[in-house]
Amino acid sequence: MGFELTELEALDVWRRTMVAGVRRDAPDLSARQMALLLTVYLTPPPHTVRGLAELLMVSKPAVTRACDRLGELGMIRRKIDDEDRRSVLLQRTVKGSVFLREYGELIVAAAKGEAAADGSGLPGRY
Amino acid sequence: MGFELTELEALDVWRRTMVAGVRRDAPDLSARQMALLLTVYLTPPPHTVRGLAELLMVSKPAVTRACDRLGELGMIRRKIDDEDRRSVLLQRTVKGSVFLREYGELIVAAAKGEAAADGSGLPGRY
DNA sequence: TATATTTATTTCGTGACCGAAACTTTTACC
DNA sequence: GGTAAAAGTTTCGGTCACGAAATAAATATA
Predict the structure, then answer these.
(1) Which of residues 45-104 of A touch B (CB under 8 A)?
(2) Domain of B94?
(3) N or C: fewer beta carbons within 10 Å in chain B?
């Protein structure tokens, strides 16, 4: 039953983070966009459209569109691979770093608030 | 610098969970939908449209739409409040419980895989 | 050099979601 | 009873994202 507790705790941290993320006015990314952004920033390069499509198991146009959006937001940058000019390398930006840094702080704060603050605590039935 | 490490670890758990969530075929909920669902399930009732709109700082129509979608998916149920028939109470369902249970397992698995598995490990620069 | 393959993007038609405003129903107030 | 207020929903116009198919550009292969 230690597992049970851990899952509920994990979900509650997730809840606090998601609620905080929705509340702030920052651009709310879709799950795909967020997964892509995190992968580019926390996983060793190179990152190509093809590779990300395979990793996330989505179509290449979906990756292209996510990159379009993240590019508009300045959180990612495209660079043509000089060794194979068909490929596009997705690269990090300062703005994206700041965004993820803040998001990390959001999660850590949510985890610290665990079992305190809003009085929910025990999730009751179910 | 212990904080730095903690934030990166948190982001990496987030990344693993998001990637796993995108990869599976399960319905991918928007951030608002997920925040709403988690709030209904992990926070003490009653939950009304008005209350959720205030908590999440979004418009009431947005909450209505999220409830429509979650209702279609069978993850939430509407019930008219007998003591004030203007209000709608959002309630949990078995299907929603199963979904969140599985999502919790996803997070826990992502946390357990921390610093192992996919070889990313050190996030390098930034 | 000519053809085939690979990578990424664009196009097309469709569906989901957004905020603001209008609307319905119910309750509160006088 | 009659008017005002409150809770949700619906409508409206616009934006964004989706998958599938078509396309453009670069590389590999014959």
Answers:
(1) 55-58, 92, 97, 100-101, 103-104
(2) 2-112
(3) N
